[in-house]
Design goal:
By secondary structure, the protein is of the alpha/beta class. The protein has one domain: TIM Barrel. It is built from eight helices and twelve strands. A seven-stranded parallel beta barrel has the order 1-2-3-4-5-6-11, surrounded by five helices. It is globular and about 40 Å long.
């Protein structure tokens, strides 16, 4: 059983006057220990990055960059054929933008977590993950990379000694390989069922899959998404059930 776990959420994923999801960032920040902030390519803009960097500081929440494909129309959830070196430049550009807003509010960047299809592409693309970890070691040596435990990204990070944090997805399903399953449309979920799923993963280290079997799962952080219907209730339910069972919610420790 876990004694502590990180609780993270993808945030700031509106753009200009467009707002995505029904969960106010100000309320989400009260239950999190880490925030993944959209950095302008799939969503987000300078104003939202500035606002959330300040909220992270005010709420003592770890600040993370959430870079994605240049895909505002598709919300970064479409695969875009792009050379790995160009993707690394896109990631570096986005990470640097959020890092400066963090510095403005005296909060250090805690981690980097690619968004959506870029996250999934890095998870299976050894060239991209190698270039990503090499770049982060030079530019973000004191930060961490958030990734799936079964991913190539995690494997490369371990080989190169770069701190990595494995995620468990509260509001996504798993297949029997341990990979998350992307639904075309995420419907409203039962907050109680999501919370119990997370508690079981923390206590037993297991999760049920869409294939009808249980698999072992290892992680240091639980993720939910602010654009999921009822996200605040889901996040609060996960937060409350963990606390009620003696599990501390805190930012992840660096492990190599």
């Amino acid at each position: 059983m876990k004694l502590s776990v990180d609780l993270n959420c993808d945030m700031g994923e509106g753009f200009g006057h467009w707002v995505l999801g029904d969960a106010p960032d100000e309320e989400l920040m009260k239950i999190l220990s880490s925030a993944n902030v959209a950095t302008g390519f799939h969503a987000g803009d300078p104003n939202s990055m500035n606002t959330i960097a300040k909220l992270a500081k005010d709420n003592n929440v770890g600040l993370g960059a959430h870079p994605g494909y240049q895909d505002l129309r598709g919300f970064g959830r479409r695969f875009i054929q792009t050379p790995s070196d160009e993707l690394i430049n896109d990631i570096l550009y986005q990470v640097g933008a959020l890092r400066e807003f963090g510095r403005r509010h005296d909060v250090e960047l805690q981690h980097v977590k690619p968004h959506g299809m870029l996250y999934m592409e890095a998870a299976r693309n050894e060239e991209l993950s190698t270039m990503l970890i090499d770049t982060l070691q030079k530019t973000c040596p004191d930060q961490m990379i958030f990734c799936m435990g079964i991913s190539v990204t995690r494997k490369i990070a371990l080989e190169k000694g770069y701190p990595s944090v494995r995620e468990f997805y509260a509001d996504r399903d798993y297949d029997s390989t341990g990979s998350i399953v992307f639904a075309k449309k995420v419907g409203k979920m039962d907050p109680k069922a999501v919370a119990e799923k997370c508690l079981r993963a923390c206590v037993e280290g297991k999760v049920a899959t869409v294939d009808g079997v249980d698999i072992d799962i290892e992680f240091e952080s639980i993720c939910f998404h602010s654009d999921s219907p009822g996200a605040l209730v889901i996040g609060q339910s996960v937060h409350d059930i963990l606390k009620a069972n003696g599990i501390t919610i805190e930012a992840p420790r660096k492990t190599r």
